[in-house]
Amino acid sequence: MSMNLGAAKRGKPKIRPPKKPDPQTSIKETWIKLANAIREIQNHNASKLSFEEHYRYAYNMVLFKNGDQLYAGVKGLISEHLEKLAEEKIVPTFPRSSGTSGTGKRRSGAEAVESAMEGDRFLKAVKTVWEDHTGSMRKLKDVLKYMDKVYTPAAGVPQIYDVGLTLFLQHIVRSSRHSIHTHLIATLLSQIQLERDGEIITRSTVRDCIDILLRLTLSEREGGKSVYSTDFEPEFLRNSADYYRAEALEIIERGDASRYLQNVERRLSEETDRTAHYLSSLTHSQLHSLLVEHLLTPHLSTILSMPGSGLVSMIEHDRVSDLRRLYTLFLHVPKDAGRIALRLALRADAEDRGRTINENSALSESGSAGPAEEQTMDVDPDDVKGKGKAKSQVVSGGNALLAALKWVQDSVDLKDRFDRLLDEAFGGDKSLQMSINEAFQSFINANPRSPEYLSLYIDEHLKKGTKTKSEDEIEAALDKTTTLFRFLQDKDKFERYYKIHLARRLLYGRSVSDDAEKGMVAKLKVEMGFQFTQKLEGMFTDMRLSTDSAHLFQQFTQRHQIPFSLSVNVLTASYWPPTIVSASTCTFGPLLSSGQDTFEKYYAGRHSGRRLVWQGGLGTADVRVRFKARSHDLNVSTQALVVLLLFENVPTDESLAYTEIQSSTNLPDADLRRTLQSLACGKFRVLTKTPKGREVDSTDVFSFNEGFTSNLARIKIMQVANKVESNKEREETQEQVAEERKHQIEACIVRIMKNRKIMSHNDLVSEVAHQLSSRFNPPLNLVKKRIEGLIDREYLERTGDMATYKYLA
């Protein structure tokens, strides 16, 4: 007791280091105990062991410089255990067949189910061994923590857990002794292919085995990459390439583009889902590129051109979903090759459809009996049995006008279709829109009559009495026509036709509304600028001033009476088309001449220095004519009125020859023939022609048709006129346009040179083409001729360099 007390007084006893064991017996016994403990841990009997005791064993071996023996011994035990696990748990589960490669025969039915089950059993065995091994390694890591802390850094070797992973790689995953590696890779590929073929597999098992390959890495000497990226991924990609290459050829042969694209879309979605659920996300980009490479890139033109199901068929049947799918998938093709192929195909299809429109129009027009003619009959509701509104009826004498209107309508409908597909299927892709526009520009300008047709189409919608259309419908039609107008190269030709048609609408009072007319001119002004519409606006100004002047003239006629009511439109010659304001001879006769003289006196009193040229072919007249049965109010052209007045004092049993009428009226031959045709050959024949027939000849004789009858009190007999130019008229128009272009090119050259003073030939030609491109595309040879002409007239001169010009002020 005294010793214990004395010790207590002296303080706490010191901890003495353990006695150095006998190197011959103690280390050997320690290792034997520790090895037995490790085996127990590997056999899942760790609960019987003392962690502290066995930790001390490992600690002592390292402490007394036996770390290398401990490290090597543990590696040997791990290797031994892994070999045992391979023999007992993995090798017996080897599948009888690890499936088939990408191009091999696909399994189906019971065979596929059996293969899936065998593969799943094998993969689960590998997974079980992995979990067994890693569980043991975690326990060993704790027991050998002192060795990992002291010995492994000093010896420059991996820690024991990492060693365990390396040994698993050597004895299990890459075991050459048991061929586990071959079976593992083949089984994984087989499971994936079975799923691709529509079979059900256990994804979680495949994912667990893929995770094992991702966690196992090679040594730095071998590249330091994961086993997944070195052993599995290359084989997987090679297998996938073979699989999808064969599948693409198989489905392509069926000749259904829609089904093929649906399959590609499905495959892309499946593989994305596959990489997300049990493959590495790092594989996604390579796998996606592989699918595009084998399913899309080599088959772009084949898909687009498949008969009955390709792009043409999709557009024809408005299969928007198929087109959207095609566009979306083609965007995946690298280097924009898919979009380029689609652009070319879309342009070719639009051009083909436009070419068909042109051909149909040419056939329709060539099948017409002659130029389209128009007669309009106004009906007085008081003279129609029963109540109703006044009606109008149009009688067409040919197919030319109908062909013209149909060409524009078909072009508008085609543009509407492609615009809708562009928005709904192609996401408003600007590059595709450009290709479509190029196609429309190509086929519209391939039709030499397109400027005239567009103007006729606008004329038809802005002219009242043709079809009943709402303001919104008219506005929509004009907007669509303006879109086609943008594609037109010869805009100067369009301007010429539009002026003529507008002039007729204004002078004959046939515009549906002033707002609609001015709205169309505003659209053209936005497209082409002020100069393009300046004369058009001048025509409106003339009509407005004429309307304002009419009231003053009526007051003037109260003091200078005339035997009829007269309304005159005064036109400024520079604003109106030459065909409208060109001088035409017409002898109005004594009655009409009195009104003519009165207006000239009125106009001279208000304006000095102006000369009036009377245009008898542009006016209309209302006249009451008495027939045997009753009187009728006729609305006719001024020229027709001049002809009718000749028969006023001619006895009913007498007639006038064509030559007599011509000498009395002094009308040009063409105008007189059309006038007599409208009076004697139309629906309302107030004159009788001998001999009978539809055409008027210079030998014909005409008499007043006293026996004319009709249920209508008011009858409108419009002058027979060509709505579409004849070939001869078109040739004349071409000559006039060509002459105008010469002046425009020369004016452009002078304007440019006046500003630049000195320019090279190429620069001058390029600048002229650029400035005139909004109106027409000037031929280079014509520009060159105009330059030569200006040199001859000393506007320009050549410098010492013959390819350079100088402006002469």
Task: Write a concise keyword list for the protein shown above.
disordered N terminus, 809 residues, Cullin_neddylation_domain, ubl conjugation, Ribosomal Protein S5, domain 2, 5 helical Cullin repeat like, Cullin_homology_sf, 5% strand, mainly alpha, Cullin_repeat-like_dom_sf, 3-stranded mixed beta sheet, Cullin family profile domain-containing protein
Kindly name the structural category: mainly alpha
What's the CATH H-level homologous superfamily of the domain at 26-216? Cullin Repeats
* Low-pLDDT residue intervals, each spanning 5 or more residues: 1-10, 99-104, 368-398
Range of strand content: 5-15%
The coarse overall form would be elongated
* Residues in helix, %: 55-70%
Q: Can you identify the CATH class of the domain at 26-216?
A: Mainly Alpha
The value of Rg in angstroms is 49 Å
The overall pLDDT, averaged over residues, is 85
Largest sheet: 3 strands, mixed
CATH topology of the domain at 26-216: 5 helical Cullin repeat like
- Tally of contiguous helical segments: 31
Q: Count the strands?
A: 11
CATH architecture term of the domain at 26-216: Up-down Bundle
GO biological process, one term: ubiquitin-dependent protein catabolic process
Family: Belongs to the cullin family.
Keywords: Isopeptide bond, Ubl conjugation
Region (Disordered): 1-26, 356-390
